[in-house]
Amino acid sequence: HEMWRHFAKRGIYPDSPMLQRCRADLLEVYCSQNSALTEQANQKGLWAERHGLNDGDLSTWEGRHKLYDRLLQLRPRNIWMSPRCKAWCRWNEFNRHKTQELANRIMTARQEDQVHLLLCDALFQFQTCWSHLCHAHLEQPVGSQMLYQEELAAVVDQSWIGRCDMCTAGRLKHPQTQNHLQKGTQILTTSEVMHRQVTNLRCTRDHVHDHVEGSCFVPQLGRINVSQYTELYTRVFANKMVRSMQCSAQVSEVNCRPTENALVTRSTDEDRKSVV
Asked: Rounded mean pLDDT of 227-255?
């Protein structure tokens, strides 16, 4: 509702002519300053931009409105989201049953994350509403409880869910031992082309894995947790995802049709009256 009210104040509605044409190829949200996905897209000659923390804190009203304005400016064919899963990871799910103090801390973190879940839902609705040729993709590690939350119910209803393993999908390896890191990853996408690509990238079971635990030294980053290191997409993975987006555009792939549940999040008739 916040997003559509912001658009309405600028005289933009789902049926506005300016929303009928894509401009950019990719907008990556919730990403690092040097994310490989945007970098690979630009290297392939696509118009790709990022909206990271330096572009506006999306937990704030001001940060979200900056993003809404960029949506109108870019009207991207693809939006890729990878919100942090710390509050929803399997370790926190395990830890919250240990003590009441831990449970309270984790539940507080999840409540603070709700705004990001609602924003991801809004971005999915924006992509499926203004053009049938636009797509949205949301990435989370396997085991994340985020996808089971009510705020993302509409996203799940209108998406394919594909799983891949980063040892195969991105040739992800421990930076010191050079053994593979499996890191199961799931991607919710409105693109069947993307879904087919992702599901073909499961672990081939022909190599040794290291556990995602402890810390490691990375020349560009210093000493960080291995789990933090695995959050960064490899160039191999990013290249495969960008190629999927290119293939989808070449065949003019139509996105998943929104379900009735998804449509509940759009209340533009009321917004029009309030503006007029």
From this structure: 96
